[in-house]
Amino acid sequence: MNGKINGNLKAESGNVLVVTLLVLFAISVIGATLAMVSSMDLKISGNQRTTTQSLFIAEAGLNEAIHRISLPNPTNVAVAGWTGNVAISDSEPYDPHWKTYIYLTSPGTAPAAGGSIVSTGTLQDPNNSYLEYSQRTGTNDVLTIEHKWDDRDGDGSKDVNEVVRYDPLMIPPENFSSGFPVEVITVAGHSADGERVIQAEVTKRMMVARTLGALYVDKAVKLTGNCAFCGHNHDLNTPPGTRPNGCVAWHLSSANLPGVTSTGDVVKTQGSADILGDPQPIDDDAGNPFYTLAEVLGLTNAETASILARADNTSIVAPLDGITYIQGDASINSSLVGEGLLYVTGDLKASGSFIYTGLIYVEGDVSFTGTPWVLGSMIVRGTSNFNFSAGNAGVLYSKDAITNVLSGIMPCIVLSWREM
């Protein structure tokens, strides 16, 4: 009996050993599997991190490109000991072969280019490591900006009339004759072994001002002396100083306005004042509205306030280019030249041979002496009747002048965005 018991105990001890070994083996397999899964998770997490970082880096490159397309041309700044124009743009007639490369160097040491190719460096701080959204040489994975092109005639050759433009007032807005070019930006972002490539289509925001005349006023005015106001739509290239009736050669066939428009208040003329316009020289209909600056620009009050907060000038300077925002009265006493938007919350006094292209908006009164000349439009709210003094001023309406200079100081808009 004792022998049987001892044999059973030995058998059971053997079974326990086998089970224990199996359990230990299973635990080892599970542990190895967990270690492998954990290692794979770490690798996946690392890959996700680098690819995500690569996308963020690519977006940073896209933001630099959009910023530089949005800058007025020229915009001169200092970068890494180099001073020059960092704005990126093409001009009429738009070159279908135009292309800009932004390298990971300072603008002063970028690889040479020529012809239709423009080469420049990044605006990143050279004292820090560059974000890798371009290369230092070559053309592969270099941040690239080029005009969108459509082979309209199917010959495989890029022609001037095949550059795609964008005009929000047209249907469809993408066309080949009106608006600013659609720019295609291609960026490859790199982080460690990760790469993400994105491509966006952007264009300059086209600004069409809602003015109702060469001179657009909210109070009664008396125009005397040799002042001249022409509401015919004039070519952007009308020579400075051109006056009615010598401006007829620069009249365009459409988009004409009255020479002077009021909101129902009387418009008196005497002396040699010369007022031209279409369909009428003077429009003093009481139904005419008076637009705020935001309404003229077609922006919200918040957008307008944001633009004014970033004004290029807050005092009268030479040249008077970009956005000029004068809080209070302004006085121009020299032969200044400027273009853009001049917004004065008080009164404006100008003398001499002041020349301005674009839009002048004055909340107070205006007094002109000498021979100031404006190509675009002047809008005056005024404080009381007959406080507008034109002197020998000349104001010629030009839709293109207003659109070009205002759009030139507006930011870009992103039309599309995709990952390649």
Morphology: elongated
Task: Give the structural class.
Answer: alpha/beta
Number of strands: 27
Q: What is the alpha-carbon Rg in Å?
A: 33 Å
What can be said about the biggest beta sheet? Answer: 10 strands, parallel
The average pLDDT value, as a whole number, equals 90
In brief:
This protein has 420 residues and is an alpha/beta fold. The protein has four helices and 27 strands. It folds into two domains: 76-204, no CATH class; 215-408, no CATH class.
What does this structure look like?
With 420 residues, the chain is α/β, with parallel strands linked by helices. The protein has two domains: 76-204, no CATH class; 215-408, no CATH class. 22% of the residues lie in helices and 29% in strands. The protein is built from four helices and 27 strands. The strands form six sheets. Strands 11, 13, 14, 16, 17, 18, 20, 22, 24 and 26 form a ten-stranded parallel β-sheet that branches. Strand 6 (165-166) and strand 7 form a beta hairpin. The chain is elongated and about 125 Å long. The model has no long low-confidence stretch (mean pLDDT 90).
Name the features.
elongated, 420 residues, 10-stranded parallel sheet, 2 domains, 27 strands
Please outline the helices and strands:
Layout: H1 2-70, E1 76-79, E2 82-85, E3 99-103, E4 117-121, E5 143-147, E6 165-166, E7 174-175, E8 180-181, E9 183-191, E10 194-204, E11 215-217, E12 221-223, E13 228-230, E14 260-261, E15 267-269, E16 274-276, E17 282-283, H2 293-297, H3 301-309, E18 320-326, E19 330-332, E20 337-344, E21 348-350, E22 355-362, E23 366-368, E24 373-380, E25 388-389, E26 394-397, H4 399-408, E27 412-419
Parallel strand pairs: 3-4, 11-14, 11-24, 12-15, 13-16, 13-26, 14-17, 18-20, 19-21, 20-22, 21-23, 22-24, 23-25, 24-26
Antiparallel strand pairs: 1-2, 3-5, 5-9, 6-7, 6-8, 9-10, 10-27
